[in-house]
Amino acid sequence: MIPINKAILLVGGKGTRLMPLTTKTPKPMLKIAGAPVTEHQIIKAREAGISEIVLATSYLADVFEPYFGDGSRFGIKIKYAYETEPLGTGGAIANAAQQLELGENEALFIFNGDVLSAHDLAAQAKLHIDSNAAVTLHLVEVSDARAYGCVPISADSKVLQFLEKMDNPIAKTINAGCYIFSNRALKEIPKGSVVSVERETFPALLSSGQNIYGYVDGGYWIDMGTPESMIRASRDLISNPALSKATPEVINHTLVMREVQLHSSSKVGEGSYLESGVVIEANSIVNGSIVGEKAHIESDVLIENSYIAPGSRVTSGSKIRGEIFGF
Ligand code: GDD
Ligand code: MG
Predict the structure, then answer these.
(1) Is the CB of 222 under 6 A from ligand 1?
(2) Relative to the CA of 197, which ligand 1 atom is closest?
C-alpha cells in the first residue's frame, strides 16, 4: 500500500469542448462504461490505498454529493469543496486542501477529473518519496504535445520546464494530470484567488529552485476532453474490463444495463454501452457507442462511435456516425 492516502480530485471545469454533452451534466459525471468518470477514478484511488478524497467542485457543483455521499458506498471517505467562482486548478487545490488535515511532512495526490489512467500510483509515490521532491508529476509520451502541458525532463527524471499548451512543443513528455504535492509545495499556492497550477505554480516552484520530478509511465492513459475521446474511453474500458474495477460485468464484449429491450434481429457490437431502459427495435445496429438511459432506437437504425442522449428517440432509418445525438 502507498504511504500517501489523501487526495484531491479536480472536477470543477466547464467541459467547454464537450458541449452540449456538458450542458446539464458536468464532464466528470458523464457515464462511460457503466459509471461516471469520477467513480472510475475514485475506485482506482481506493484500490491503490487512498482512503480520503476531496472533490473540488465548481461548475454544476450540486450533482456530485447526492451521488457519492460520504463515500461509504464506495469504500472511501469523500468530502466536497465548493468555489463561489471558479478558482482555476491551483486555486481549487488550495481551497480543497483546507478540508484535509495534512501533517507537516505529508504529501497528497491531485487528480485531473477528466483523465483515466492505468499508471502505477505506488511507483509515482516511491519516486516522490525517494527523491524528496516538492512535486512529482505523472508524465506520458504523446506524438503531438500541443494540447497539453509540455514537460521536458532530465536523464534523472527532474522536470526542467513546464510549458502549458505551446505551439511548438520541445518534448514529447506531457503532464498527464496526476500530481503528488508535498505539503511545503501546497503552501506555496495562494488561497482564495484564481491560480493556474500549470501556468503559475509549477513554473514558480521551478524558478525558486524546488525539485519537481516526472514519473513517466506507458500504461493506458486517456484525456477525455472531447466527445470522441469520451466515447473511445468507454469502448476501451469495456474491451478491457481490467482497466477499471468500476465497470460492471461485461458480457460478449458489450455492457448492457438493466431492463434493456433489444429486438432479436438487432445487433450490438463490441465496446458498446447500453444504459438501463434502452429500447432497440428491429434490424438496428449499434457499434462502439454509448446509448443513454431510456433512449429509444427505432428500426433499421445504424449507430457508430456516437453518444446518444438519455431519453432521446432515434427515428427509423437514421444513420448516426461519430455524432453527439439528442443533447
Ligand atoms: N474545481 C475546479 N475549479 N476545477 C477546475 C477548474 C476550476 O476553476 N478549472 C479546471 N478544473 C479541473 C477540470 O475539471 C479538469 O478536471 C482539470 O481541472 C484540468 O482542467 P482542463 O480544463 O481539463 O485542462 P486541460 O485538459 O486543458 O489541460 C490539463 O490536463 C492535461 C492532461 O489531460 C492540464 O493539466 C495539462 O497540463 C495536461 O496536459
Ligand atoms: Mg482536460
Answers:
(1) no
(2) 35
Ligand nearest to the CA of 27: 1
169 lines ligand 1 (CB under 6 A): no
**Of 139, 141, 135, which is closest to residue 184 (Cα–Cα)?**
135
The number of folded domains in the chain is: 2
Specify the ligand 1 atom closest to the Cα of 13: 14
**Residue 186 domain flag:** yes
Residues 215 and 277 in one domain: no
Range(s) of the domain holding residue 201? 6-223
Positive or negative: CA dihedral 55, 56, 59, 65 = positive
- Determine whether the shortest distance from the Cβ of 237 to ligand 1 is under 6 A: no
Tens digits of pLDDT across the chain (327 residues): 678 999 999 999 888 888 888 888 888 999 999 999 999 999 999 999 999 999 999 888 899 999 999 999 999 999 999 999 999 999 999 999 999 999 999 999 999 999 999 999 999 999 999 999 999 999 999 999 999 999 999 999 999 999 999 999 999 999 999 999 999 999 999 998 999 999 999 999 999 999 999 999 999 999 998 899 999 999 999 999 999 999 999 999 999 999 999 999 999 999 999 999 999 999 999 999 999 999 999 999 999 999 999 999 999 999 999 999 988
Q: Which residues make Cβ contacts (< 8 Å) with residue 302, sequence separation at least 6?
A: 284, 285, 318, 319, 320, 321
Both 189 and 306 in a single domain?
Answer: no
What pTM, to 2 d.p., does this model score? 0.95
- C-alpha cell read off for 158: 527532474
